[in-house]
Amino acid sequence: MLQGKGLFAKRSIKKGETIFIERPLVSAQFLWNTLYKYKACEYCLRALETAEGNARRLSGIPGLSLPHPELCRVRPEQHQACPQCQVMYCSSECRQAAADQYHQALCLGPSEEDPDHPINKLKDGQLALLHSLFTEALYDDRLGRWFVPEGFRSLFALVGTNGQGIGTSSLSQWVHACDALELPAQQREHLDSFIDQLYKDIEKETGDFLNCEGSGLFLLQSSCNHSCIPNAEVSFPDNNFLLHLSALCDINQGEEICISYLDCCQRDRSRHSRHKILRENYLFVCSCPKCVSQMDELDVTSEEEEEEEGVAEGETEGDEMEDEMTDV
Questions:
Q1: Which of 45, 108, 70, 79 is closest to 240 using CA atoms?
Q2: What ranges does the record give for the region Disordered, renumbered to this chain (predicted)?
């Protein structure tokens, strides 16, 4: 595997240490997530539903009451809407930041329901149409290179291969806060049983889609290469778009900091299966220590994995165009 960018430790880092916290260059909630009534701050993606409201919607139980409601961090009284288009923000600070950075240009105002408005068309178009509408709605001479067809395709590829998924959930935060409570044994057992049953009800009603979900492009995090045995992981403990990169083990000075582009279940699969997923989604062949140690394994995939993955092509890592190193 030819590598380009990489993130390297300038000092020794201890297991569990937060390596850095980073804001995205750009981020947005997925359109499908919005359509399925997952409510998030338009600027920072913080979940806007209270934990109880979220649990009621996901479980399909309108009268559900959560114990320890004081553990929910959502503050509806602080939420603010854009007066023109009614887009919601978690605070006046987020509303102002959005207005300063982009919303004045993107606010639909009275055209929110107009299917012919260029920005509304952007939500449904194919790449050629998207390019045309993108140019019509947002063209800026200072950013001209991104508006020509080749630059526009590169922009899409950049976000697609380097974007980091963002998930926020008021319910998950409430559950974590409940886990941290010091309770007598009987109360702990009762609370744990309640939470277990709640997740069963949610799985039956809604399935696996529990979070407000979106994607962001992060300057430092996007420099991290993949390893099937990562020494760092990404999380969003603030329930917004702030990315925390934390060490999974001790990292020595000069050592590369790697995350995994695969989830836990995918990392436990065979080398052949992992390579298929990475080729299909990230266009490179992994040569991390785990993959090198398993080179003699047969290139076989179980029927169950075949059904989930599909055939993929591609041989080079998306970042190999640039030769850069970033120290943190």
A1: 45
A2: 299-328
